[in-house]
Structures are given as structure tokens and as C-alpha cells.
Amino acid sequence: MATEVIMPVLGMTMESGIIVEWMKKEGDTVTEGEVLFNVETDKSVMEVEAKASGTLLKILHGPGDDVPIQQVIAYIGEEGEAIAGDGGDGGGADGGAGGAKADDAGAAREAVQTAASPQQNGQGGPAVSEQDGLSGQVGPSGQPARVKISPKARRHARDLGVSIENIVGTGPGGRIVFSDVEAFAAQAGAASAPTPATAPVPAKVPAPPPATTPAASGPGSKHVQRRAPLSGLRKVAATRLAESASTIPHFYLTMDVDMTRLTGLREQLIGYGEKRGLARVSVNDLIIKAAGISLRAFPAVNASLEGSEVVEYADVNVGFAVALDDGLVVPVVASADQKSVFEIAAATRSLGEKARGRGLGPEDYGYGTFTISNLGMYGVDQFTAIINPPEAAILAVGRVKDTPVAVDGKVEIKAMMSVTLSSDHRLIDGAVAGQFLAHLRDVLEQPLELLIGQDGA
After folding, report:
1. Active site residue 425
2. Which residue among 50, 172, 195, 354 is buried most deeply as judged by most CB within 10 Å?
3. Taking the CB of residue 264, how many other CB atoms lie within 10 A of it?
4. For the whole model, what pTM was predicted?
């Protein structure tokens, strides 16, 4: 019996994955443990290994398809082996168990209800997955013909009220992709209202070539120059941050920090590290270490809300935001309170490189207890950040800049930095947040505590 290849769960927040590339094609020999395909998750692009050896009999989802977790995407078996529910035409494998496992299979269930019963087709008929629907057209076997369409395109067509039966697919094997739905909706005028059931069926409209120049605009116009689906990273971030902003009662406290001593200490650490081949310490590395020390002193901030229970963590795991072209990821420095500044510097460098190369693994993210978002390198003075659930707080860090400051009745130039703490008011009171922020400020302004107990390695 053929082995199902499913979209694996590669992270706690993963709901679907976008197939980037198949390393094998149909008919190729597959060995258990070798890389079978690459998938883009909400955090990175990861390699997925084959769980069985044999021949890659059927690929149900191609590059670019956004597939829910646990849905069947391919079959591995013996050469020439029939796939259960194939129906004899090679296309039925797009359904079967894959459709049954799809999380978003509403359209498939509707199609199955209108399909012939097992008694009518003699073989039970192939189940219909989210990838392939049943059209009103009749195929060679007398059953309704399948419409090949990616899950993302199907959802978009459903949102726009577009009938997929009338769209010409430009994807592999005539598959309807997201851009085909966009083009059809624009030409058929279906973007604003579904086509009535009694309306004449419009002719099939092929997808037009992409425009090379934006259309001329006039008074009151708003012509679209580019339209693109949310990437896996940005889509997950949009969902999680919208949920955070709408369900978590945020409040914000801002303090100015005198970084004069810390910037001087950093220069000494850089010189020390260069002589010993240690990682170059950044300002953000020192802030991560300081946050770890303060979180250890204030466990109420190193916490989360689970149902009706407040959970305070024994581990202090500080995440730091890394901006990518198509989204944001938050790799985690584990036990930041216990690591030396050089160990933190090595960790952030390694994690940053992995993030930019889409190589983060499940062990690199998803278990943070606190997050730092630093926009100082972009010249930002001060901003507020949205809490990364289920954490209780997030620290927004601005740039270090020379600022005139009154000291003992005199004006001095100090290296100042603004930090803003966003807190979940269900877990943290204003007084606790203020004490935590003051403690963090004190550690940064008297930075020798950052080096206590360290051996420079």
C-alpha cells in the first residue's frame, strides 16, 4: 500500500506550509531519510525528509501551494502501484486521504455531496480534496470533471464569489493559481459581488500577462500597481499580532537611559574579544543580557497567561526580532540571564544568519518568555511594540544618540537611549512594570553587573 506524504507540523504556530521546491519528480526513486521537498513555514524554509523508500508515485501539490498541516501532498510506493481512490485516471490521488485530512475542506465536502455515490460508480469514486473540486463539466468516465486549483486560489475565489469552473489555469498541468483568480475577477467584475446563479456563464478568460507599467491615474483614482499574497511569514505575523492587539490590554511605559558608560564598556569588550577570537558584542547583545538579569529579578514579567492561570517561567529566554524582506521572525536566546555577553553575541550572530538564510529550526524559536524589538539601527528614536503572545511584555528599543542633559545644574552631552515597555495589564500592574523598567535602566547605566561571574568565554 502506498505511503502518504503529509505536510508536517514544523512549529507550534504552524497552520500550513508553502511548498517551495520538490527535490524529486514523479517516478523518481526515493530513499528514506533523504530530502524530499522544501517547505516555507511561518518562520523559515526547511527541508523535509522522506519517511519511506520507494517510488514517488504522485505529487498532489506543487511549488507555491499553501497546504494545511497534516494534509496529504504526495504518495510513495512501489513502481506501478495503484493509489487508493485513484479512479484509474491518475487524477484521483488529489483527493483520498489528503482531502479528508485538510483543515480547510469546506469546499471539498460540498463537492463530495454532489458527486456520485459508491453504488453509482462501482469503485467508490475518488474523494475530493481542497486542491481539486468537481465542476459541472463531465469527464471521460461520465463523472463531473475535476478542477485543479491550489488551496490558496480556492480560498481567494470563495472570498471573491468567483466560480472556479470558468477560470483557465496557467499553473502546472492547468492548475488554477492565485493570480488566475485575480485576473478572472478583475475581468469578469466578480471582485465586488458573486455571480448570480441565473446569470449566463462567462467565457473562460485566460490570465493576462503581468503589467510592466502602472495604468495612468486620474482625479479620484487609485490604480493598483502591484498585488501579491501575504507570505507565510507575514501572514502568520499578521494573524498573531492582530490577535494580540485586539485581545491583550496593552499599556506602555517609556524611560530614557544614559548609555554613556555602556558604550564605553562595549568598546573595551570588542577589543578584548578581538584578541581572543570571540564574537563582536553589539549594543543589542548587552540589552539582551540586561533584560535577562531584570527578568530574573521580576518573575511577574517573565510570565504568561494560560486560561485562568498565571504561569511564571524558571527559564529566561529572550527573543529578538529579526526583519526579513517578507516578514519578521523572533529567534530566541535561551537562558539569557546565565550566558556571558560573548555567548549571547555568538548566539545572536548565529541565529541572525540562520534567520536571514531561512534556516531556523524549531529549536531556535517559539519558546521565548520575553521579546526585544530594536529599531535603533534605522535611526528610530522611540516607538511602541505589540506584545508577542503568549508573552507578558515586549521591549521597544530606540537609537543611542548624543543628547544635551542637565547634570548638577550643568548641561552635558550624554549618549541617551529611549526604551518603551509594552505590558499585558492582565498580568502586570503599572507599578511592577515601572520597577522592572527602572531596574533595567540601572543595569544598563551601571553595566559592570553585566560582567559579574563571567570568564570571557
Report:
1. yes
2. 50
3. 12
4. 0.61
